[in-house]
């Protein structure tokens, strides 16, 4: 099969790597390879494959190094390279280094410490609730006292001759007072009071934290209550002579302290500063962009390629939407930046720093993503693009069909070669068409004839030169020279082949057209053939003549587009390789596809003109002033920005005029920011999104761990899980948990040998159990 | 084995694990340096970390809407700060990461301080070293030894740093050390001790060939840190000084305000990454290309952007241009300053003689050249002293040693006493008596023929003839030929096969020239990965400080002068 006439002759074109058979086109080579070598010669294939894989690997490594997502710390270890050393930058990705967690230990120690406190607080809260459960003002004092005494057993008066806090002796004047929360005794001076609103706040907060959400209407009330509470506690210290405290509950300093601490915690939990609200909105917007932008880019890319998968209107809607979000991000971050600036006293420098940094990162974000937004074609352009695309598709189809046909023809040809020459006219006429092709099979004559027309192609000349050199060298018998020359030649050919592929595609397209024509003629001929057999030869020769004419046509046609778009394009190609360009590269020599983008660029830009200049200006305006760390980082987003500069750039067109004056070395240059304009209030973005922040979980993530139950028993930490239920069961549950908690604590204390603690705890436990039993009785 | 990546991964994990929301990164002095080596601010900003605070800073405000990520060394001081912080929490929730092993009792006291239950995480993440290059780390310790022995505090810090490195790379190595250095042995033992104590931490997936930790001492090669350098990174460090990737250019005449301090980080400076190991001449031409490229892209003021093509070209190039303008101005300034210093200090000539002193054995010619340069008024006292130091080290025991004469010349030149004293101190630090192996005259036949051939062929570049001693050591190690009597194993087991993963640690500091050597070895040796570390990364200045800090000269002043006197008599 390998028809090597002269082993020394250098062959070029679409050679099969296995049998050195020369094939006409890329398509044929492919089909040939698939048909004939699919089974055999795994070695070569393997070699090629491994080469490709190696290349891929290297590329992946490179990408990995550059990409930010190096964190994919899979468990795959590194392979050692057996073929050479490696640049340390290229070392295989490694897993996360060793870590060790002390969290469980930490929690154990903390739980031991905190449980005591939590139990204490819970106990107080439960009692407080009971003390406030009835209508104090309309109940007689005797009854109140009875109730109070039932909540907590009061310490016997006789047991306490002195005030435990200040040490003063009790007598008629200095009377004993009982803390309603723990039952202990203190003097009047040391007594504290808890106002009802504060009590309500404390008890209701613990309930609220159990139900799903704090309703916003309740929070102002509680704030109010707390203020009043603190005032009343102040006044209580000064002098409250009357014994009657309808709206207050007496307690000792310790209980009061504990409760006040608790109150502070509640306040902190409820209070969300403005910056958090704004920031959450900002993040939502960013997320939205992250969702929408890729979708839009996909659409725009497809539309710009003339595809009809997406509708233009939809895409432009989306574009406007995305741009609105960008505007929103800008506005929000601006708002964050200026938060509290007019306040007196001015905010802490750290707060300002935080605001600046948020603004800075938002700017970076917009900068990075905005550059990736390509523009859309206008309607007319789109129509044009669609047409182009259709044509191209048509051409491709023809091309494929032609390739298939050609393959078939070759098969037939071979058969007919073997068959005797004595064939009927039809066969001869069939062969009449391909005849010149056969001559051209070596590709050399073909490319040679092209070489005449394309003397300008330096590659080809070079190849010719080298071929002749090789021949000469061979003749002279200098084998090593021949080898190096051949090496050169191969490289050149690779280059050339690539060019030729394009040309070949062009060629075969022409051929296909021409063949169609021929077939038509043949059809006609065939009809007449039987009648006029004699004329048949004449016709065949005629065909050959038209064919050769066609060839000339192809050449000229090929030349024109090959040169024209290049000059037309010169500036584009010089502007550094843009990804879009390189992706189009295999196609670009084919004239129509190369012309396509031009029509996009040169057209007027309808969209995005309003937004882009503004935002780009504001970015550039902001960046230098906020440049705090490293100079070069600022430009980091540009890497992404360039990913689709070809398509994105038209939108910059209008802005370029302004930018022109912008010298990056004079970074202080002030440029008016469109968002500072107070006259143009943007549609208030906050209205439409009000429901979102609520959906955001604001509570910190609770990491799962074996001690979770211990922390969860703290009723205040119990989050939404229990959902909106009635109060009674919750409390019961709470009590049960509390009991468990105390049991665990007793166990712990016993183990540590702290007997006094055990006692206190058992007391607690008993009390809790009692309450539980009572409650059960009540609910039943 | 990429140390930069190892640390970066730790930091990323911390940030990731803290979930969404505004965050503040709470660090101490050292961890600030550690983080800044692997992350830039804008990079970390994108992960919602907006504030960077020092745990010891007093005027931090209460910001309950922030999450705090604490990355701290587990020192007593930091634990105390943290306890105070937790008692009165300023942020809503705390994620605590310690850069090394923390004691159980410290965990307990932290836990007991956390009454408000604000701590959500307590972990050890072993990023306890400065990752300079992917294969180079440092501990930024200057003056690690007192005399020949460790400063105890620095020994424990070095042990921590080294064990953290091993943990972050997940290596449980065999240890070899330089026999001639007591400090190397001591460090080896300490590391081993930690590995034994924390055995469950060091249980990694076994590799076929266990990794190797080789501990060396700077005194075995005092020559390398005394030489002028001509590759970009090393040269910048030698002439300008690199401190955690930062270069102080404030002394450069006529420097603009934003270039007072520049950052050279291979992680996000492409030009630097591509050129850090190239020599000065190549960088010159590369920077020229960069400039031309830049000029081409630079939008011309007078050029009218009339056509769409013009605008398109402009806008397309603008981001690149902006990025470039930063890079270009930075590197042009740095390289410009380097070349100014080179010509001002006559460094080409100085370096040539330095290289001769370091690599060749022709005493009379060397002496002549040194003497000639000492007369040259353009040679600074620093360079003059370093030439004499090199001479003193190389020809310490030479029969016709004329060090006293050179010392006289130094005095006549007006070189300050500090430098003159340092000459004897350097000899004391890294002289023949101390060295375990021979720096200057190779013993085995292969090396002799190699040097002979080298002499025949002539050298390619006079200024970069010198090959650090580390190269030979590692070369032998890789080939399995490193002598066990000079570099014994710690413990009974030895390595059967040739090592694959090697960690070299130099007590007393490594140099960028050695980093380059290791880089090249990594690139040329199949299947071998080497990471170099040192108590610090030296240039000549810092090396002399190290020598000074070791306090050797004062104690041994007399003994250093005795041999020189005796040689004079002969």
TrEMBL record, chain A:
The gene is LOC101395556. Residues 207-224, 613-624, 635-645 have a biased composition (Polar residues). Keywords: Coiled coil, Metal-binding, Zinc, Zinc-finger. Residues 475-527 form a coiled coil. The keyword Zinc-finger applies. Residues 207-241, 577-598, 613-732 are annotated as: Disordered. It comes from the Eukaryota. Residues 14-42 form the C2H2-type domain. Residues 718-732 have a biased composition (Acidic residues). Residues 157-260 form the FYVE-type domain. Residues 228-240, 577-594 have a biased composition (Low complexity). CDD domains: FYVE_RBNS5. The keyword Isomerase does not apply. It comes from Ceratotherium simum simum (Southern white rhinoceros). This is Rabenosyn-5. The lineage of its organism: Eukaryota, Metazoa, Chordata, Craniata, Vertebrata.
From TrEMBL, chain B:
Keywords: Protein transport, Transport. InterPro entries: Sec-1-like_dom1, Sec-1-like_dom3a, Sec1-like, Sec1-like_dom2, Sec1-like_sf. It comes from the Eukaryota. Pfam families: Sec1. Belongs to the STXBP/unc-18/SEC1 family. This is Vacuolar protein sorting-associated protein 45 isoform X1. It comes from Ceratotherium simum simum (Southern white rhinoceros). The gene is LOC101388511.
